[in-house]
Amino acid sequence: MPTYALWTQLLNIFLLISILVILVWVFYKIKKIHIASYKILNDASKARRESAAIFTQLQSLSGLEKMLDLSWPLPLMRGWAGSPDLLLTIADTVLSHKPTTVVECSSGVSTLVIARCLQINGAGHLYSLEHEDKYVQKTIQMLEKHNVENWASVLHSKLKKYESGELWYDDSVMPEDLESIEMLVVDGPPHNIAPLARLPAFERLLPKMAEKVIVILDDAAREAETEIVKQWLNIEPSFKSTYLNHEKGCVILERGHI
């Protein structure tokens, strides 16, 4: 084979290899750009969702503050506290349905909101079951600061293991002459004490409920709360269930209301 033909063949092979290397590099860069673009789009979508969620909470907070017309600002509402959208729903329910006997599982900012709404209504009383003494005291102080302490009783109710094996509030601390419950807010006990920590609320308090009653369950976006609602409706199918797409999810169960 002539020398020039050999060199030509070697040159062609070199060019083919170079082209393949360039193509591999180009495809690698295109893949990197595609991944980066997808991440940018995903981050942008996440940022839009977070912005919308923040706007919803700010809008709910603004509406709540106008509705309550308190002399002092509302306490912080992050972490364990009820979100502004939930508290706005609770306030609207109390003001529109005007329950006279309200029971709450847990206490906190929601206690203040309910007590203030009862004060605005000019009738009713709230009984909050709280298993931690420090939160009992903090909530009482908050109620006194806002001058609504006469509209709510924060009851120190330690968690008790019942014959069924379930751990729940010792509801014997509630008044014996308690009138029929017209509204129940379930935001406790904490979910980490048991797989379905809030399930006993229905079984324990259903006999004390009025024929016309509203039950509000927070954290309904969690699987445990979804199962709890399912079991509650099995216990008493006469309740109508409505899911609200709040920050943490919320379910409203109603009986006797149009």
Q: Which keywords apply here?
A:
258 residues; alpha/beta; 2 domains; 7-stranded mixed sheet; 9 strands; elongated
How would you explain this protein's 3D organization?
This protein is α/β, with parallel strands linked by helices and about 260 residues long. It has 2 domains: about 1-70; about 70-255, Vaccinia Virus protein VP39 (Rossmann fold), CATH 3.40.50.150. The chain has helices at about 5-70, 85-95, 110-120, 135-145, 200-205, 225-235, and strands spanning about 100-105, 125-130, 150-155, 160, 165-170, 180-185, 210-220, 240-245, 250-255. The strands form 2 sheets. It has a 7-stranded mixed beta sheet, with helices on both faces. It has a two-stranded antiparallel sheet with strand order 4-5. The radius of gyration is 29 Å and the shape is elongated.
The DSSP helix count reads 6
Considering the protein shown, what is the CATH homologous superfamily of the largest domain? Vaccinia Virus protein VP39
The mean pLDDT is: 87
What structural category do the secondary elements indicate?
Answer: alpha/beta
Strand coverage percent = 15-25%
What value does the Rg take, in angstroms? Answer: 29 Å
CATH architecture of the largest domain: 3-Layer(aba) Sandwich
Indicate the CATH class of the largest domain: Alpha Beta
Across the major sheet, the strand order is: 3-2-1-6-7-9-8
Q: In terms of per-residue confidence, which ranges show pLDDT below 50 for 5 or more consecutive residues?
A: none
Tell me the number of structural domains: 2
| Succession of helices and strands | HHEHEHEEEEHEHEE
Shape: elongated
Largest sheet: 7 strands, mixed
- Proportion of helical residues: 40-55%
